Amino acid sequence: MSTYGKSVPLLEAERAKGSRAGQLSGGSKIFIDAPSTSGSPRTSPVFLMVTVEVVLVAGWVLMGEITQAFPNLTHYPAMFAGVSCASYVIFLIPWAVLRRSRGLRLPSKASLIHVNNIMLPLGLMWLVQIWFWYMSLKGMSVSVNTIIYQTTPLVVFFFDLFFNGPSPGYVLKLGCIVVAVFGIIVMSSSDTKESNGVTNSLSSCIEVSVATLLYGLFDVLYAQWAAPVCDKISKKGERITYSNSSDNLSSQIESMFLLLGLRAVPACMFLICTLLVGLYDQDLPDYSRGDLLAMLSVTVADWAFNIAMCIGLVTLSPLWVTMGTILCVPAALVFDMLVKGLVLSLGACIGAKKSAAEPVAVGRLAAIAVLELVLVTSWVLTGEIAQAFPNLTHYPAMFAGVSCASYVIFLIPWAVLRRSRGLRLPSTASLIHMNNIMLLLGFMWLLQMWAWYMSLKGMSVALNIIIYQTTPLVVFFIDLFINGTTPSYIPKLLCILLAVLGIIVMSASDAEESNGVTNSLSSCIEVSVATLLYGLFDVLYAQWAAPVCDKISKKGERITYSNSSDNLSSQIESMFLLLGLRAVPACIFLICTLLVGLYDHDLPDYSRADILGMVWVPLADWAFNIAMSIGLVLLSPLWVTMGTIPCVPTALIFDMLAKGLTLSVGAWMGALCTAVGFIAFNVISSREKDNTRHHCDESG
Predict the structure, then answer these.
(1) Which of 612, 469, 450, 636 is nearest to 543 (CA)?
(2) Domain coordinates of the chain in residue numbers?
């Protein structure tokens, strides 16, 4: 909280009594933290979140639809913003009534001036951001405007990070925000008929950027500065009648009404000045009765939106509120589809799904579902791009080297994350120790990719898939050799055999490309070596590299104090370090090839599309390997290799839907076997983990 909010003697006296309202660590909690002795109602956080979200979305969509239907409303953006903001002065009436109903006199003049001084800059900030947003619509397409304005969650995230420092799970939250914003970009880029012929002027881009920054800053300052100070004032005063009602809920509602009313002061001053100057005397649009009714409806919808926003800012968080407003965009698209007959493109539907991502509690089932989705999607994407651009794999060693070496970029987020945790970089000895481990694993990883790309040239794709997808069997027996048997190892083996059998049936049934292809012995050896190295890499990574790296990540000389939980951050830091260090052998390989000049005169003539494809393949490969690294640590190497098996039926189904491939009965039977084996394996693993946890609880 600002020191400005702590300097008033009136508030210092309240602090001495143990008031919690001014603490920076969360503010007041409407409905949730009401003391049980007061008899106030207690509503679950989920119910509150759903209610606030419904009001936010409904208010936003209603405002947008009415504004589009009555263009006269935004003919003068400054005037419309001023009227809309000034209308909030009416909330001072229910504030005064509610305060008197609690048996309290109105606050002292000094207290009101103090709160008003706080709300003057915030109200001005609010007015200017609305004004700038309306102005920006005139000189740019709605799609670009939406993309820029809906990056507000990122603005709030970094403002909150600046004011309060990192919180537990902040990296996970950032990932969810990026996915949601990416969904908005996909939606806005896919359905932009109104953008044709519209030139996006620099001034409009600056205006909407200023509006976005002011909106994010307003949310953070409102929750951490204005609301706690106002709550202190609302909770004290000279009582004139006795009241048995709970003061906690009433004082918070009273605070909300007061802040809503005071934020209108700058807008009222603006309107008074424009009336005195006579700025709009002879230039106002000819408002019809419908326009006036629409203006009233927009104002009421805006009230509902801002009341829900204020409750969310104080009860939940500024970040939650801005993430909640992101859902307004897909809701508006769905509304247009149902009411106006708008046909949504595939990109808009995909973007809507991505923008629904919110920070949630991740259990085992959710982790499995998310990791499996990333593994399958990235695997299929990599395969489709590699098939579409054959030049990429013309030199398998070079392509594997570039792909592996690109992971060196993950050393940057590793260093940033470590410093954000208040730790110095590890000692040279620790880094050398970790690098020595990853040299072997990184070389193994590079070699298996190289061998697999080479094997594709001398054998059918069907046989290649059959051999490579036996990796779960390789991991199973390596794990059995290193760790011994587990209680459910026989059922797991049967599930793996069933899934691999499904792959064999699918590959043997749909292998038109195999006709006339001679499967050379050297290619069979290469794919077998790749399979063995892939399985060995997974086991050694999970049981050797990850635990050692985790120890290094959890220790270090702390240079700044941090209240955040180190467990999740250290695991993410370990993952980034291992991803970065595994690139060292590939970097050495590329440097050697450049020094020797191996590819100086023999590189394929890459087109612009080839280069774009080469960029997309490492990005998909990054997603695959990040998911794989998380799965190796959180789940098991066996699960990761089993998790890649559904990629094969998914790729076949994708080819059926996108390319018109006709699948045989054998392919469908194989896909069914693979699905049954994969699901049964996860059920057995989950039960085994639950039994292990149960035995640990009993022994503890």
Answers:
(1) 636
(2) 76-140+201-278, 362-391+480-516+617-628+641-700, 395-459+520-603
